[in-house]
Specification:
This is DUF3077 domain-containing protein. By secondary structure, the chain is mainly α. About 60% of the residues lie in helices and about 0% in strands. The longest helix has 27 residues, at about 85-110. It starts with 14 loop residues before the first helix and ends with a helix.
């Protein structure tokens, strides 16, 4: 029995179309478009937190920032005298309490045995 069509069938290919298709494929995989943020920051906003960060990372960074602030205010408080020292120690106490809350929230997110 004789086949009517050759194996594989002959097709005419346009080199320009092949180049365009390969460019589209490479751009799709190698140069993905950035996802547009739906929320636009307010005009005075300088800093932002990246989307998609898990709660554990956020709480861990919060805890570290509070520990740094605590160290700075503690160092400052012991160089001050009188009411200024009391204000600095009050700020230090607020930082300590906030750190305790952040650490408890971190423990709730990732319980440690």
């Amino acid at each position: 029995m004789h086949k009517v069509t050759p194996n594989p069938p002959e097709t005419e290919t346009d080199p320009k179309k092949l180049q365009e298709a390969s460019d589209r494929a490479l751009d799709y995989y190698l140069n993905p478009k950035q996802a547009k943020s739906e929320k636009k920051p307010s005009p005075g906003q300088l800093f932002t937190v990246a989307d998609g960060i898990d709660n554990e990372s956020l709480l861990a960074n919060l805890s570290e920032n509070l520990a740094s602030a605590d160290a700075m205010i503690s160092d400052l408080a012991f160089d001050l005298k009188g009411s200024r020292r009391h204000i600095a120690l009050g700020i230090q106490q607020l930082i300590e309490l906030s750190g305790m809350l952040a650490n408890r929230a971190l423990d709730n997110v990732n319980p440690q045995p």
